[in-house]
Design a protein that fits this description.
Length: about 230
């Protein structure tokens, strides 16, 4: 709660819609981002697995260690943190993203970030929704990097970026060239449309479910009304 209060005070005037919650509460969101230390990501996902089923889960953790003056990547049993989360909760839709964005700048709304964001997933809808979210952040460009297997080199490359930070005493980010902007714009438009359709479908399914529940309740009530008052259940 204190963290949320500090954020709301720091960014007052921006009308931020954030609230405090435990892991179970956070997992109740429509899209869930796992931003824990890498060695706790799988366990955290498993602890709220029942709430993650069918949802897009963004994994942004990197398995790294520092030996002396160097950062070195670690390889989890499944090949990446993102793949480990997917294996832990097979029914969720994991997308790996945001691994190369400087954490300090990402948490500072006044600090501009010039960065490409590599997104990979085995689920098209997860790529589309993550693409739409990243595309709303100024100067950040979402790029479809393929299936979830690509999370292994993407996560590992973070060690190189951290090493550059140490050497040059800066905070580097990834920016790729040669990708047609028209192609990226078309993908972002398609992702936005797909996300809107998914939201509409989810809303329709929820309304249908509520309607079915109400109809069922009315049917049971009518059946009870027809039952003789002195009847004894069998």
């Amino acid at each position: 709660m204190e963290t949320v209060d500090n954020l709301l005070e720091r960014w007052s005037g921006r009308e931020l819609a954030i609230g405090a919650a435990d892991n179970a509460g956070a997992a109740s969101a429509d899209v869930v981002v796992i931003a824990t230390p890498w060695d706790g990501a799988t366990q955290t996902a498993g602890s709220v697995a029942d709430k993650l089923r069918g949802k897009v889960v963004v994994s942004m953790a990197n398995a790294l260690t520092r030996i002396g003056k160097e950062f070195q990547p670690l390889v989890p049993p499944r090949g990446s943190v993102a793949a480990s989360v997917q294996a832990e909760v097979p029914d969720c839709l994991v997308a790996a993203a945001l691994h190369h964005v400087p954490a300090k700048e990402l948490g500072d709304l006044t600090e501009p970030i010039e960065s490409d964001v590599l997104i990979c997933s085995d689920h098209r809808s997860a790529v589309e929704i993550t693409n739409e979210i990243v595309g709303k952040i100024p100067n950040m460009r979402p790029l479809d990097a393929g299936e979830l297997a690509m999370a292994t080199p993407i996560e590992s490359f973070t060690a190189v970026l951290l090493q550059l930070n140490l050497h040059y005493k800066t905070r580097v980010a990834v920016k790729l060239t040669g990708i047609p902007e028209a192609k990226i714009a078309a993908e972002r438009a398609a992702s936005a449309a797909a996300a809107r359709n998914a939201a509409a479908s989810a809303a329709g399914a929820g309304a249908a479910k509520d309607g079915a529940a109400k109809s069922d309740g009315k049917a049971k009530s009518a059946a009870n009304d027809r039952q003789p008052k002195d009847a004894t259940p069998a």
